[in-house]
Amino acid sequence: MTVTPLQGVTHVCFGLSYLVAFLLECGRLAWPGGAWRWLGLGFGTVGLLTHTLYIVFHQPTPAAPYGSLLMLAWVLALFYLYGTVHHARQAWAVFVLPVVILLVGLSFALVSSGGVSPEFGVPAWVSGERLWGVIHGTLLLLGAVGVSVGFLASVMYLVQARRLRKKLNPGRVIPLLSLERLETMNRRALFLAFPLLSAGLLVGSVLLRHNHDIGGNWLSLKVLSTGGLWVVFLVLVYLRYGSRVPPRRLAWLSVAAFVLLLLALISAHPFATGGAS
Amino acid sequence: MNLRAIGCNVQSAAVELREKLAFDADKLAHALAELPARYGAEAVVLGTCNRVELYLARPEEEAAVHSPLIAEFLAEIHNVPADDIRPHLYEYADAEAVRHIFRVASGLDSVVLGETQIAGQVKEAFEAALKAGATGPLLNALFPAALRVSKRVRTETKLAEGHVSVSSAAVDFIREVFDTFSDKTVLVIGAGEMGRLTLNHIKELKPARVLVTNRSPERAAALAAQHNGQVVPWDRLDDALVEADIVLSTTGAPEPIMPRRRFDERVRPRRGNRTLVVFDMAVPRDFDPRLHDGDRVSVFNVDDLNRVADQAAAERRKHIPAAEGIIGAEVTRFVQDWARRQDGPLIGQLMAEADRLRETILAPVLARLRGKLTPAELEYVEGAFRLFQNRLLHGPIAALSEASRSGHAGTLREAVMKLFGLKG
């Protein structure tokens, strides 16, 4: 198979672009000025483009940990660009980009540690035999987007609430969205993520029950952490709509949910077969 | 350049005098008609609550207008004895006048350092003078330059950043908590002056409702009428707090009107998860400070707001050297550009006159030598004359440029014109 120069794009290309964009955003906060912002946006856009090319040419499966992480990072990179353009004055990128870089780094670590060799061409996971595994992975991935957005909104909420508790001068701290906006963002993310996670988990449970070869994986880290994530979300939904818990506690729970999500994503996937697991 | 900035401000004159010297529309129109007619000067009158200043530019060869004359002019316009005005007037000349208007427009000469309102007032003053036909080439260049410098100072330094008043600091805190205000209710408890001022700022956020409660129903009604609000009886304070999102409390009560226990028992359970921001402007305080958690309830007292305002002011002061640096560079640039505009035609005229003289002398010489010398030798002779001319003019042109850079080229310009027989 002929490999085009664009197929030579690696994790390093977009990982470094995001890193430079992040550093430039930090620079913009320290020394406000137009050039930082545009340079940061430039590098962020280059990162997203190369990230897209990588996904287009390597077609990683969302049923595999490295693929899930990479695609989640891609969606969050889109979220970063949207937020940076839409909330120009806010310190949006300094919160979102570290998560994107972390996810790209984890994906890179999984690829580097062996067992995963992304191939070019038609992805095997499109074939019918793994369709339900892919549906499961895709539902969890979309749920993961909600979890990640909820996590980012929660981290920003906690920072903002801490500043208010300390009564810090709003003019001397990095600009953030209001508590009200962050709470709304967190609520919407929860609203999106919970049904997707539930459906993904349901599909996964059915698959696991019918796959006698992997029956022992009920106690695997992947299944346990995904189950734990769902339970945390159930608690979050209850606390959000059924009781009067201060939003700060809900934000901490969203952070815990994200940690469980990462754990679930980097654990070996019980439904994926082939090189992905 | 023959420019003067003459006037008084908060440092040089008490408010009583500044009030007497304030220009209303009629007086301004009269002044803008009289100044050019009487003194042959371009004129802009800048009048704000903190200053009254006249910017006057006359042709270079004419005498400048000085402050005693302007004191008499102001005395005549405002019907105030000139002797009362004269000691309070300051006068800046040429480059220093340019620096003064640049500093004024940038907020460096304002009571509230870095305030941005002054740039709009400078613009309005210039536009009024322009409309009245009172400006000319110098002021038409100076005022747009001042506005450009003001913008540069604001964008390149943090001189205008942060809010330096207690009311605006309160609005800053509100914006950290809430995003939309069309569904918010503001509750004003008491009718203290600080509360009124802060309410004026908060009303700019366009909240859905303003509720007012006071032990005195009459005072509550008066304040509510001023702000299109609703009066809530004092004994329904708890109910009003349940409905409120933003509270301004300014009672003169000797004890807190909202101790923690009362809030936790009667208000908090009925508020659900809604966030409350309280500005407790009262001394002694109206709200128990322990209610503050930065999450569901944020309570800011007058010290918190003063601290934020003071920090912003201190932060702004750090940027004075940078702002002065920009202004210094812009003054030099303006003076040089103006001098170049003034010197350009004169130098052109001087060069043309020298060219004419050289041609007058050289043409018969070359005619006589033609045929006796080779074309290369003739060209050499012509070049020697040209070199002589350039060397001769280098001194006067360099001296003129040097004097223009310092903004004092008027006399030298006249001397060059006389020495070389040029017409202005």
List keywords for this structure.
heterodimer, A: 277 residues, mainly alpha, Four Helix Bundle (Hemerythrin (Met), subunit A), 2 domains, 8 helices, 71% helix, flat, disordered C terminus, B: 424 residues, alpha/beta, six-stranded parallel beta sheet, four-stranded antiparallel beta sheet, 16 helices, 10 strands, 12% strand
Can you offer a commentary on this structure?
The complex is a heterodimer of chains A (277) and B (424). Chain A is 71% helix and 0% strand. Chain A folds into 2 domains: 1-126, Four Helix Bundle (Hemerythrin (Met), subunit A); 130-277. In chain A, helix 5 packs antiparallel against helix 8 (247-266). Mean pLDDT of chain A is 79; it is low at 119-129, 212-216 and 269-277. Chain A is mainly α. Chain A is flat, with a radius of gyration of 20 Å. Chain A contains 8 helices and no strands. With 424 residues, chain B is α/β, with parallel strands linked by helices. Chain B is 57% helix and 12% strand. Chain B contains 16 helices and 10 strands. A 6-stranded parallel sheet of chain B has the order 7-6-5-8-9-10, sandwiched between helices. In chain B, strands 2-3-1-4 form a 4-stranded antiparallel sheet, sandwiched between helices. In chain B, helix 6 (117-131) packs antiparallel against helix 7, helix 8 (166-177) packs across helix 13 (302-318) and helix 15 packs antiparallel against helix 16 (410-419). The radius of gyration of chain B is 33 Å and the shape is elongated. In chain B, 39% of the residues are buried. The model of chain B has no long low-confidence stretch (mean pLDDT 87). Chain A binds chain B through residues 32, 160-167, 169-172, 176-181, 184, 244, 246-248, and chain B through 158, 161-163, 169, 172-173, 175-180, 272-273, 275, 292-296, 298, 300, 304, 307-308, 311-312, 315.
